[in-house]
Protein 1
Amino acid sequence: MHTRRLVKRSVIGSRVCAPGLTGDAAPLTGVIQAVKQDNRDASTGHRRNVYTVLMQDGSVKEYSEEEIAQMTAKAPLKSSLKSTCNGGQRDGLTQGQNGGVQRGEALSLSPESTEEPRVLEHKRTGRALETEKDHTRSVSLLEQKRKVVSSSIDVPQARKSEEEVDMDKVTAAMVLTSLSTSPLVRSPPVKVSEGLNGSWKDGGFTPSSYSSSGYWSWSAPSDQSNPSTPSPPLSADSFKPFRMPSLSGPPDDNIDEHDGNSLLFDEPIPRKRKNSMKVMFKCLWKNCGKVLSTAAGIQRHIRTVHLGRNCDSECSDGEEDFYYTEIKLNTDSVADGLSSLSPVSPSVLSPPPALDQRQPDGTNGTKSESSSSTPLSRSAPSALYLVHTDHAYQASPTHSRTQGFGEQRSQTIAVLSSPPRAAGSLSRKSRGEGKKCRKVYGMENRDMWCTACRWKKACQRFVD
DNA sequence: AGTGCCGGGGG
DNA sequence: CCCCCGGCACT
């Protein structure tokens, strides 16, 4: 099917690889300037297209459809052009995650696919035309490319060189395009997030712009409801700036990303995503629940307030880590995309409220709503927290310290910020899922439980 | 079945 | 109060 779709559409602006006047010896690349149908000329009787190509050397030539197709298809060398132009193979390669299906088609290059190049082209000029006609396809390709960006593929380079060669006026545009483009792709989770974290975290919260790694969402405003497409895309605006240089190099980026595109494509391209995350640090000390925006702050808080140490961080033995938890709030729409339940309301973004509700002593009835142990558990989340928890033992420092019960540190857990169970039973909230004395100490050590647990009351030690 | 804890009891 | 437990809601 791809062939059908690929071809026959406007290819103006597409680059092609054509044999020089002398033949294959010196292949030239050129840009299709016009296409016309020529019935008369067809020796075979059926009509065919004649492409007017502006060659890199400035000359203008006309080629029949077949000629162009062949040129591109035949010489391996030239194929570079092809890939350069359309990036088709890349698309196929990188599909991994989602949307593998449709992309697959892009992969195969048939002779006809010669025209595919134009897809790429839309970076520059020809895009408007093709867009209109074949935007659907274009979009998918773009998407793919975007996704692929990070992957290491040699294609890019080839393309680049080609472009340099044949692009004259277009070159500039290309460069700009590639530089500013695609948001892309999978962000190396950890790295990115950390880096970003620090920055915004310290400065107060900046609700939007942080993209978390691991989660992507596609919530294009206009069409998040595309259940069938698992693919996501992702990209966060914030990435743009650095992404190019480091990740994939200019070449692959490709594509779209220009405003122009967005205008041209009426389809919402999932690219501009905002994955925003916030990181908060919550004190886990019994009945404290203080939430600070910086790790240092929370550590200091714990050190001074709970551990009774006044010295600076130097004298810290790291114990503070056990008493606070890092919470990442993912404001983006993973939730809405995945859970498809409720549209996200911005209001939910602020973590504090959610956290606060339960910290009080747990007796007011709202205590355990967010679970720290079940990832993505609740339904209809509007935002989600990634809780990075270190231990929650705030019990008696001496105890936990020396005994070291579960030493599992750093578990990353996702918790939803919106009141999970609102929908369900009103009377009873779901029970807290965090560690409780019983779990931590076991029935054998019941005497070590907090009194509340002993009384079968809401645990006050491990308040989640 | 195991767990969390509300709502009630007894001292 | 302190301590304990029946029993329900959840997982």
Note: Residues 2-180 of chain A form one domain.
Protein 2
Amino acid sequence: MNSFTEENYIKAIYKLNESDNASVTTNAIAEQMHTKAASVTDMLKKLFVKKLIHYQKYRGVTLTVKGEKTALNIIRKHRLWEMFLVEKFNFKWDEVHDVAEQLEHIQSDKLIEELDKFLNYPKADPHGDPIPDAKGKLHIQKSKMLSLLNVNDNCIMTGVVDHSTPFLQYLERCGLVLGNEIKIKEILTFDKSLQITVNKKNSLFISNDVAKNILVTLK
Amino acid sequence: MNSFTEENYIKAIYKLNESDNASVTTNAIAEQMHTKAASVTDMLKKLFVKKLIHYQKYRGVTLTVKGEKTALNIIRKHRLWEMFLVEKFNFKWDEVHDVAEQLEHIQSDKLIEELDKFLNYPKADPHGDPIPDAKGKLHIQKSKMLSLLNVNDNCIMTGVVDHSTPFLQYLERCGLVLGNEIKIKEILTFDKSLQITVNKKNSLFISNDVAKNILVTLK
DNA sequence: TAAAATTTTTAGACTTGTCTAAAAATCAGT
DNA sequence: ACTGATTTTTAGACAAGTCTAAAAATTTTA
């Protein structure tokens, strides 16, 4: 079994990796955990021995499959408890975090099963953040701004930020409607505009501002 | 704030003191906590510095008022969580303990308030163990077998174990009916039979078997 | 009431997770 | 490609909680 501290490191690594999908640096973890880089290095060695992370000195870390499973289990518990506190115990969204942070470490499979049942098996918490199932699988993806993805990422359009008519009309003319597949071919360095394909055919350029207003989930 | 470990020691001391109401020994705590006497001594020094216990070397410990308040708060949380698990999450009584043992350390006043409200402010858990209120006050007493008390203990009769007619008729003849005050005058060593008074007048002897079938709460 | 048995405490060591300060490795700018 | 800045790691120390072995105090027993 992993200690509370180990669980918190795993979760921090998962979150840092989630946003940029790159190898996570020692300093980034130190900042996230409100601790010092030296302490992080010590812990990384331990997590490496336990085969929870891939780690090479000076090279940052990523989670192993085992580490990711561990992370998803903690996140599952955290998000289910947040739902519970809000829906059943009259917590406001800004009040839940600290308590869920404690509750997520409680060890009991039956408790989490029953909690899930009690909440009617929610697929996402009210933030739109997906709740992994008991096997650690995410059934829905949190949507992100298209502008945050990288070259060669493949995604499905799921929403827009700007709902103005001119914008929506522009999108329709480009074939950018809900459900279509968007692949990023290139991101130009000088203005961060994107070359994309829609449904593997239509190739076009969109500005970074446009990309910021398109919500997608990774495929 | 106290650590999990400190809280567990406080709870252990409370429980050990509850049954016999005497100064609690180092070895008794060590056994209860599944640890070694040397570790207990170390912790006792810490709890003494924090003014949670009265402690003199080699003389055992009792809780201070502050320590007792701390204990009652943990017990309140423990028993509320047990109720919750049984009533809302389909736990059996033998399944709740380990989980409640973890949940009792969660720090959040609002959480416990809402939990209490959610359960409709229960006064006792289904074991009959009383749940302290938010101020640490016990509104009902757990009833025990009269045979477990000591000389000079004073109590009120609250129930019986054996409900057979002959037994109840015998009790009535002795004046042993619900609500009457029983004081233990003497416990004979050779057969553990008891000399008692009922309502400070009638003095009589009852066998230990009879005493085992009379439920009382301490006054 | 003195010796024997038991309980409790002390002393010193180990583990986990943390820190500071200094050394080593990597990265950035020219 | 070199130099300086930054990041990461190492080394050594500390606090909490635990342990074993030995010493000290208390209790039991004869």
Note: The first strand of chain A starts at residue 53 and ends at 55.
Protein 3
Amino acid sequence: MSISSRFAVGIHILTLIEINKSGVNTSEYLASSVNTNAAVIRKIMGMLKSAGLVNVRPGIAGAQLAKDLSEITLFDVYKAVNVVQEKELFSIHDHPNPDCPVGRNIQDTVMPIFSVAQSAMEKALSNVTLADIVNDILEKEKAVGK
Amino acid sequence: MSISSRFAVGIHILTLIEINKSGVNTSEYLASSVNTNAAVIRKIMGMLKSAGLVNVRPGIAGAQLAKDLSEITLFDVYKAVNVVQEKELFSIHDHPNPDCPVGRNIQDTVMPIFSVAQSAMEKALSNVTLADIVNDILEKEKAVGK
DNA sequence: ATACTTGTAACCATAACAATTACATTGTCT
DNA sequence: AGACAATGTAATTGTTATGGTTACAAGTAT
């Protein structure tokens, strides 16, 4: 299984809002860049808004970032779009047999390990900000321009 | 989304094979500890066998570990049961708009970052061996005994 | 031969996902 | 006020992974 593309789309949206900040970022416009339906964008935007990453208002066209670019890490986006619940990256079979030494302990033994592994991944995401993403994209564009 | 419990079940199975190594570990027996169907166990066992972690033979009851406990990391189990493909922990929306600076670069920008995050998680799993799991369970059992 | 076990394949119910449609709500503009 | 446009949200759909279940062929031992 794999983590929902809502995460990648969230990054895409926020990046585009920044790069197109002089324009009007309607859900329709953003959707055309992501290549999906505008309702999908609005749904994700709602999550980003709840997380305080973005300002959008009903009836008013366009979205703006609510924070500075360098203040938003990928981990913030990841949490915002709710792709993985806390301590639930790995699922554990439930109701193992309590009459077996392994069955009655496996969950408690394995959970903290899974938790460490999940945290390691999340830590890596928190080391990257949207500013890094935007810079990288601008770099790539510049390279092509030559 | 969350990573299939095949992983946790794989750990459970291997641990139990070790702890019950004086007994006969049939799929039926293992299934009763995991609390699932024996066919599910056999399917997972097939994966563990393909990965060279376990010895099982058609018609012959019982499974044995194919390696030393301390030589099997959780990452080995994780790879064996195929819960996450390489570089595919995170999914990325496909066909973003190539006419948009963000659309045409987002994949190349984001992929290496996702890859680093996934590796960090996998690294954490490779730091733990089945010997650690078995020890922890035996510790927990001993504590209860007092 | 009989009994037991592993190895597979087929099938099913469930859940998450992304896309889509539809519509109420909110705001802007004339 | 009324028309228009955008957001917010709910309902529906096709697709896919999962975990469980049944069934049975193939291998092994007594």
Note: Chain A touches chain B through 57 residues (CB under 8 Å).
